[in-house]
Amino acid sequence: MRPWTIAAVSSLVLVLGGCGVQEGLIGMRDQATQIRAQIEADRAALVESSRSLPEGDPVRSRLEALAAERAVQSRAVDRTIERLDGLISSAQSGDAAGAVEGGAGLVSPLLPPGARLPVLLAGGLLAALWRAAVLKRSAASIAEGLEKAMRDDDKLREGLRRNAATLRAVQTRTAGRIVDEATKPGPMLRLPV
Prior knowledge:
Blueprint: H1 3-16, H2 21-51, H3 58-92, H4 96-107, H5 113-152, H6 154-162, H7 164-170, H8 173-183
Helix pairs in contact: 1-2, 1-4, 2-3, 3-4, 4-5, 5-6, 5-8
């Protein structure tokens, strides 16, 4: 498998954003493992072939040089697999945004120079949007929890109504919008972030 194939798969993962990030990273890791196995098999065949030749044979030195090159490639793939393992751990821990952002950083060196910056920027944008959506859902769940608690607790409902002006005064416009979206039924423009 060539680096371009890894780059294409990685770009697809980045374009899809948070959709299946973990699965995409696991697929990339599996591909990298296959690449490493092929490189190691090539290296072993080169070493075996070089050992079958006499010491002073120029072909033997060329085969040994190729085997050394394959060893360097194998170590580079090992480092990539380690980074992918870290990104998979991020995705499994719920930090899909960090995984997408890290994936963009992992893929960008494989791309031609003109495509690196857009991939890094797209990865950063997707990560920021993902984090914003997670924060919004978190804030909305707080508002929904308070709304449900007020249905059951008259004192809480009365206390919050008494202090509603103070609460609204210290809320940012965005926080107020999130609370309104979470607590007011009916038609409203509800943005994902």
